[in-house]
Design brief:
Blueprint lengths: L3 H13 L15 H16 L3 H7 L13 H14 L6 H6 L2 H28 L2
Helix pairs in contact: 2-4, 2-6
């Protein structure tokens, strides 16, 4: 389960910590605020809603279902989230997950995408 507090705390720690040495190896991660903005834009397009209005409606505990995203819109949104934010979520997760937790899920999914390629390469090399 994704705790919003730990997710937010992590990004604050990353912002405070100087980016020397170890930071060079990792891919640059989008910050939580950038991710929120990106996701808001995608939802606004799906709903044909003004992004300012939508931002005001979406509290951390609000689900997309509550702001008017139906399953057809969620299905289109899912494809855009996968393509543009590089995170694979189910339509159900998009509709039913509180907005703050949804951001966390996307951040975690992005991290997994980065790590997925490497173990597969190693498996190929070491297979008899």
């Amino acid at each position: 389960s994704c705790m919003v507090g730990s997710c937010r705390k992590r990004s604050i720690e990353e912002a405070v910590r100087p980016h020397a040495g170890s930071g060079a190896l990792r891919q640059p991660e989008s910050s939580l605020s950038e991710l929120r903005q990106g996701l808001l834009e995608l939802i606004a397009v799906a709903l044909e809603e003004d992004i300012e209005v939508l931002g005001a409606q979406l509290s951390p505990a609000t689900t997309l279902l509550e702001v008017g995203v139906n399953s057809a819109a969620a299905s289109a949104l899912r494809a855009r989230v996968f393509k543009q934010l590089e995170a694979e979520l189910t339509t159900f997760e998009l509709l039913k997950t509180p907005f703050a937790d949804l951001l966390c899920k996307i951040m975690n999914a992005q991290k997994q995408q980065v790590g997925v390629a490497l173990p597969q390469l190693n498996a190929v090399v070491h297979s008899p």
